[in-house]
Amino acid sequence: MKKFSIKQLENFSEVKAHTIRIWEKRYRIFQPDRSKGNIRHYSLNDVKLLLNLVLLIKNGAKISELARTETSAIDQKIKLLTADQARRNKAVSELIICMFSIDVEQLEDILDSCILSWDVDITIRELIIPFLEKVQLLSYKDSSSEAHFAVTAIRRKLILGLERVNPSTWMTKSALLFLGEGEHYDLLLLYMAYILKMKGMRVLYMGTNIPRENLKKILTVKKPDFLYTYIPHKQKFKMQELIPFLDEHLPDTTFVVAGCEKIVSPKESLRNVKFIHYKDVDNSLGLQSI
Fold first, then answer.
1. Is the pLDDT of residue 244 over 50?
2. Residue predicted with more confidence, 286 or 157
3. d(Cα 255, Cα 271) in Å, to the nearest integer?
4. Which of 64, 155, 182, 215 lies 20 to 30 Å (CA to CA) from residue 33?
5. CA distance 165 to 279
6. Residue partners of 290: CB distance under 8 A and separation at least 6
7. How high does pLDDT run on average in the chain?
8. Distance (Å, whole) CA 64 – CA 23
9. Topology of 83-164 in CATH?
10. Are 257 and 230 in contact (CB under 8 A)?
11. Given a cut of 60, is residue 235 above it in pLDDT?
12. β-strand 33-34 against 40-41: which pairing, if any?
């Protein structure tokens, strides 16, 4: 049976581990298993309860009252939440539970329902991205089997969103997006393509695992104004070999390197290279120059 650390509970709920321990001690809300080293291990039911408690607290409830409430009554209170933001937060929590219970059908049903309720854009920005952040699927931190199922489902929705984008005004500028050789995990790249296309940028999505020589050939033909890629967490920037080529053949192309955490950039200054957090794609320095 899947077990979770208190750090994972903190990530899922955005409640500090210290607070979770206080609730555990003061109200006996959780009774986690403990390892020989006295490390807490929580169940999926504990995760669900915590997420429900946090959602109700955000909507005016008090932990002291909820601690005396039966789990079935808490579930009923969750069902009574009708405000859009509460429903979206609830959907994110449900996606987390579906992922770790490997309920792929329900996960997709939730996403489809959200798209019908709020459209693709809100679903991507306010549900899919927060979900991916909470379970740390944007930063390569989970390679479990349940993560693969979730990634496949989410990837289809991101592609759907990308295909449906039809901005009222198109820019004359273009952006080419790619992942370097050996990189196959493109959720964040698809999200960046979606945001750029929403802005009216002409997007050329080259995809994953692109050999350097193939990239150079495409760049020579297409000559994009912007070149986008992203770097996994805590990885050093390893694409300096592209810089001389860009300087020689595409001196006006801005190379934007995004990440979901701080990127370890080279000490030397690189002309026309911008390092950004992926959330700054739509207002990065690259786009400000358009």
1. yes
2. 157
3. 9
4. 64
5. 19
6. 171, 173, 225
7. 91
8. 9
9. 1.10.1240
10. yes
11. yes
12. antiparallel
pLDDT of residue 269: 65
Residue type, 30: F
Residue-wise pLDDT tens digits, 126-147: 999 999 999 988 866 667 889 9
The HSE-up count of residue 146 (CA atoms within 13 Å, CB side) is 17
**CATH number given to 167-288:** 3.40.50.280
Q: In whole angstroms, how large is the CA radius of gyration of the chain?
A: 22
Integer Cα distance of 218 and 206 in angstroms:
9
Give how far the C-alpha of residue 25 lies from the chain's centroid of Cα atoms, to the nearest Å: 32
* Distance (Å, whole) CA 41 – CA 6: 7
Report whether pLDDT(287) > 60: no
Q: Give the amino acid at 28.
A: R
pLDDT in tens, 100-127: 999 999 999 999 999 999 999 999 999 9
Tell me which fold the domain 1-81 belongs to. Answer: Multidrug-efflux Transporter Regulator; Chain: A; Domain 2 (1.10.1660)
CATH 1.10.1240 location in the chain: 83-164
pTM of the model: 0.91
